[in-house]
Amino acid sequence: MIEIKNLSFSYLNAEGKQKSEEPQLNRVNLTIAPGEFVLVCGPTGSGKSTFLKTLNGLAPNFTGGVITGELLIDGVNLLGAEPYEFSHLVGYVNQQPEGAFVADLVLDEIVYSAEQLAIGKEQITKDVQRLSKLLGLEELLNSPLSTLSGGQQQRVAIAAALISGAKVLLLDEPTSALDLQGATEVLNLLQKLAREEGVSVLLAEHRISRVVGSVDSVIVVHGDGSVTKGNPADQFNDARFAPPIIELGQQLGWKPLAMTAKQAQALWKKAPAAFVEKHFNEPGPRVLEVTDLEVTFGSLSAVKKTSLSLFGNQITALMGENGSGKTSLCWAIQGSGTRTSGTVETATGDPKNMSVQDRLEVTTMVPQRAADLLFLNSLADELHESDTFAKVPAGTTANLFQKLAGRIDTSIHPRDLSAGQQLSLVLSLQLVKNAPVLILDEPTRGLDYAAKRALAKQLDQVRNAERTVLIATHDIEFVAMVADRVLVLKDGSIAKDASPLDVLGSGQELASQIADVTNEAGLITIGQVLH
Amino acid sequence: MSALTSNTSHLFSTTRTHPGAWWLAGLALALSASLSSNLMVLMAISVGAMLTVWLCRDDAPWSRSIRFYFFLGGIVVLLRVIFRVVFNLADASQDVFLNLPSFSIDLGLGNSLHLLGAVSVLSIQAALVDGFRLAAIILSIGMANSLANPRKLLRATPGALYEIATAVSIAINLAPQLITSLKLVRRARGLRGHSKGIKSLTGIVIPVLEDTIEQSMQLAASMSARGFGRKGNRTSLQLRLTRASTFLTLTLLTVGVAMLLFSSAQQFVDLVIIFAGLILAGVTFKLSSTRTTRTKYIVQRWHIADLVLVLLASLVLLAAFSGVFSK
User: Fold this and answer.
1) Residues A491-528: tens digit of each pLDDT
2) DSSP assignment of A338-353
3) Domains in chain A, please, with CATH?
4) B25 with B102, same domain?
5) Confidence (pLDDT) at B3
6) Contact status of A128 with chain B (Cβ, < 8 Å)
7) Least C-beta-crowded within 10 Å: which of A93, A161, B74, B105?
8) CA of A126: which chain B residue's CA is closest?
9) Please, which residues have CB within 8 angstroms of residue A279's CB and are 6 or more apart in sequence?
10) What is the pLDDT at residue B33?
11) Is the CB of A359 less than 8 angstroms away from the CB of B3?
């Protein structure tokens, strides 16, 4: 279906010269069969998105850069063609569907591409029926897109990408903003599309563990320009992005490696390894107290009367489905968000009543749209500004950033960093502020496992008796790695306030991969396993 | 099967008013308002437009934009009255209801400027009429814009204008997008803080612009990836010719109408320009409709309800023309 020969791609700098020594993609050769389900992975910022975009002309037509080689799709060389020349062959779904929607109603959105391609009306009706049935959208065809949940929107985007009759589907991290249920739905559908409809699916994804068991092959974009394709079992020798199940197999010397939870369960049962008890930090003094906090937007009650305390020395995870009120609660605690009633007490008062400047000395937050915090023209300027503002020795922020994201040329424009790198940068800017309350809203989106481990280590290091950390997240494995306490929000109220062992342990709704595989009480993360 | 057919028939049902009907009605009301100088009539048009939106809107996000038009209208009325009180040019001799001290400022430009002074009922009334006329026009257009999303209108545009209409609808969507982005970025800025050497404006303007441009690029990329801009079975030459003639047609018509409206000097030239524009419009339609390049799967049809709506608005307009409203 897709045949790539000697494909190279490089971005250009302002002078029209190649940006770095190494091209982003260097002499890539690979083929993808019809109906093949392929996982595309690689470390943060390695160029997974760029690779996908070269397959439908978005790179270089929308990204800039130079492309050479051969790109045969269904036998036609389309190298360098405009994206619309690919539209009947390749469907594309990106991370945030709402930004890419061209219509307002579900049906209008789905048929857009078919209308552009002048497909006959009867054919469109047939295809809409088939796809809406397959994707479970039959009841939603007349709904405004803005009223759908994230998972539903993502399903509409998939239907809209396939209506053109495309036999290749490219998805750039389609589940990164979805809760567990939404993500599972989307991933199951993709598998069905490949199996039943013969669509070649290329999926760039960070939740590798959830898909690795069902894909046919894995493409790794290594970040040094090389791109390799092979069996899942051979492709995960790089610990930067190997998921927990595979890492477990590698540590315990399983041969062949287990790819699915089922295989791993059998192997573990045969020869369970010893593990240490998970260490949790004792709560320090109370740093922040929330009393009867309520947030309502119009008729929607986002957070219902909620009281909680956050303690020093502790990292608290705030979990819950999309729309359960996590983000509203974070902003309300931070002080600048909507708060309908209730109080938040810290040693220096309620952050809501403070000036913007004073508030930064009490609560710092990394919001979901982290890139909004960046406004200077180079990475160097951002790092310097951060040091100046926080009154810390020059280079402090840069040091922290390097620990999280590796060494990066500081002359780069912050907007040219990958999403994961931008997040690491904003995290560093906020961490150096040294406020007693640190709030992180979905901090692991777009981060590979190595970056997540680095972040966990960093959070562990900034821990002290006077500081509390609150992390709103869907990322179960990250919570298992880092949290001392878990709060689960449901419909705006705290449904659970417990130790991670109780929330993420085996048999629980939010069981971690390791808990699920080992079925051992008290074992939730790979760091506990002895080898 | 049944789900889709029932949905499709629902789509074509009368529950959806044709976006063109809302725009025609809105324009008719706006024109009526501009012809009227009766305060009661102007207020009735304003309230009518607001009520229509209130009754007919669905929960779509663009329906909320009427609030913006309402505030804009209110500000216009308020400013008109304040200006009349401050720059009180006509010295009132009768019906004085507010006697403010008068200031005269000599700007050295001949006549000195009189500020404040005695305010008459008549002058306030005139200011109110002026203000409400503008407010009624704003609310009528606001009604159309709130009830008929520009993107919906796009579906109803003839094929020849499709590309231009797409650009316009994206441009119209840009303003609310900028406002949303501004809100989010301002909130985010409060989380970052900035040191003394950095201008606070930089921290707002740059992310907002980058965000807006990025969003527009994302939309463009998505449209392109889904086939927008395809040549179809037209040759590049045909495509370029169509685009050029569409552009020229619209330019000629706009310039012609503007000249006709704003300058009374050379009506002959204006008419020639408009005539040339109309001929070119015919050529454009011919050029772009020779071959199908796009399917119109969802067709907005005109229903009785739409016609009734337009008819009602035309009646108001007719009354305005006949001068009923001017007294």
Assistant:
1) 999 999 999 999 999 889 999 999 999 999 999 999 99
2) ---EEEEEETTB-GGG
3) 2-235 (3.40.50.300), 311-345+360-498 (3.40.50.300)
4) yes
5) 39
6) yes
7) B105
8) B1
9) none
10) 87
11) no
